[in-house]
Amino acid sequence: MREKEKGLALPYSYLVDNIKVLLIFLVVFNHIIAFQLVRDDLVVRHVWYAITIFHMPAFVFVSGYLCKKPQSVMKNVKNLLIPYILGYSLTWYAYIWCGNSMDYEILRPSGSAMWYLLALFIFRLTIEALGKIRLVVPLSIVFALWAGTRPEFTTYLSTSRIVVFFPFFAAGYLWDSKYTEAVRRFKGKWVLIPISGILLFAVPHFMISSGMPVDIFRGNHSYVLCGLTDELGIILRLLMYLISFVLILTFFAVLPDRKLPWTFIGRNTMGIYFFHYPIMIVMSGLLILKIPALVNVWALLGVSLVFVLVLGSPPVDFLYNGVLKLLSLILFKREKKVKDEGLEDEYDGDDEVQYELILKQRRKAIEELAATLETEGQTIEKAAQQTGQPDSSGEQKEH
Predict the structure, then answer these.
(1) Tens digits of per-residue pLDDT, 169-186?
(2) What are the Cα distances from residue 11, in Å, to 58, 128, 185, 270, 335?
(3) What pTM does this model have?
């Protein structure tokens, strides 16, 4: 089911919001079980590994899919960079308040969930240019596989994660709604569910039984720092790309494209992402997450649901966006309207083809103007000859 949003010419699909609701729930649930339960329950550890493989890649894909329009630097500073600084600071303060030790390293956001905002900021500013590269998705995957062998790609400015997750953003950017329609019409689409289930069981089981850490799926470090050889690291990262794209395809194929009672949360995921992790840190510091009744996967599923419903509610979204608007009003000047001098076409590009086109357009305009002036001159001369009036040179014609 589709409808037109206010102020938007493009149709809006409920499917995207339903996918975002599922993914933000998995983000919250995956974070909350990591505090305690994954150490105590082997089955939950398998679930944790499985979710970690695909939940952020899918989220990045959807972000790329929604990033079709050219991106303003200032808009992204307001909507992403400022929340990144605020979110990291809030997470850092939550750690300190709970008596934990954490250096304030805002350029290394690995201790928080805010790396995604920094990565999204870089993705949005570069995708318009990088998205024009032929085969950008496979080329960026190859680059990411190579980057895992290099120690230069680290947590500093989330360079490692930016490189690892960029293929998903590029793929989402290039994904068209007609592809979604084709996938949803495919009669054999339901086979994607068992395929996804088999992959999500087999890879975590192999890794846990072999004692391999989940870090490789976070994209935060080189293969060596993840405790893997380069060869094994490349294989596991390739598996991450494979499984994530299969799951993304599954979501677009089978999730409902209609308005559900919780669909509205898909429009308010930023507030959930911003607030949930600092709150969990405080809950952990207060030992709430160690209460026996909460050391249970079903209890934490319920807690995660409460997080999503409360933090995704309109009042929290209003608060989140209101604070951003207030800070933007304080920090930045109002944008002045620049008078249009009609020069955009001439200065919009710098390639030789466009320059030649401009010259041809100018020559044609000059030729048309010259022809018009010549015709007008001939008309005036004929009129002067007929009436005996001076012609354009000011002389009297003889009869």
Answers:
(1) 999 999 998 999 999 999
(2) 22, 22, 19, 22, 29
(3) 0.82
